[in-house]
Structure formats: C-alpha cells, structure tokens
Design goal:
Number of strands: 7
Oligomer: single chain
Distance between the termini: 17 Å
Shape: globular
C-alpha cells in the first residue's frame, strides 16, 4: 500500500498528552482484567481542546473489531469530530485490546496491546504481558514494551 506523502514527514516521539491518553486507557484495561472482565476493543479519541470520546467494539471477532476501531478514527477525521458527543477535530487516539504476544522463549503469553497516534506524528504499538485475570490485587502486568510503528490513522 502506498504511503501518503504526509506520512513521510511525520515526527518521531510521543507528546505528554498522547502518553496520558494511552496510559489511562491501558490502565482501564488492566482494571477490567483484574476484575475478571473481558476487554473489548476500546478506542478513545481526543480533540485539541482536551475533549474525549470513548467507543467499544465487541460484536464481531477481534480482527473485525480492531478494523472497526481503525475505521472509526478515520471516519471521525473525515467528519472533523463527533458533535453529538462534544468531540471536535480529532488530534490523538489510543486503541487497546486483549491478545497474546510471544515471549523470549517463543511461548505466547496473555497481553494487553495498545495502538496510539497523534496528528503529525508517527503512530506506534506497545504491549504489556498480564497474568492473574480476575484476581483483583493479585493481577499483575509488565511495563509496556514497544511493538513497532503502525499505520497512522490521523
């Protein structure tokens, strides 16, 4: 797939605002897992004024839900926001979901995955291994590890 010319000139790094948005969303996913609940594909989109809107995708398989979250970000970009929920032109987003990631030995471990991006910046993914689902205070996670660049949605 050809990259848009603007994608070639995106900045590296993560702003404090995007870090806060993505960290909060990942924390929400950890809380759900600690309580023994499933984590749908969760999306949070924020505008330049700090207004945010949240969306959950759960009616299809994981791949379809993730594609739905990606499409929602693109739709919000094209529509310049979502006035029904008070969201202006989107400038940053974070998506989180459950999955599995191979560890150093090649064995797959439960993980929370995160995709995040901001207008004008490269978009990234990360993951945290998790264990102890439903164990409340016994639930544990690793520090997020980078998983590479992903296609920018804004």
């Amino acid at each position: 797939m050809a990259r848009r010319a603007e994608d070639e000139h995106r900045e590296d790094g993560v702003t404090p605002e995007l870090d806060q948005l993505s960290s909060t969303l990942m924390g929400d996913a950890f809380d759900l897992l600690a309580a023994g609940k499933d984590v749908d594909v969760l999306l949070v989109v924020e505008d330049a004024g700090g207004s945010a809107a949240s969306y959950a995708f759960s009616d299809d398989g994981m791949e379809e839900c993730l594609a739905g979250a990606h499409a929602k970000v693109r739709d919000l970009r094209h529509a310049h926001g979502d006035p029904e929920v008070g969201l202006g032109e989107p400038v940053r987003y974070a998506i989180t979901y459950e999955g599995a990631v191979a560890d150093e030995s090649g064995a797959y471990q439960d993980a929370v995955l995160l995709e995040f991006g901001e207008k004008g910046y490269k978009s990234y993914s990360a993951y945290s291994y998790v264990k102890g689902r439903g164990e409340g205070d016994g639930f544990a996670w690793t520090e997020p590890a980078p998983a590479g660049e992903v296609e920018p949605l804004l």
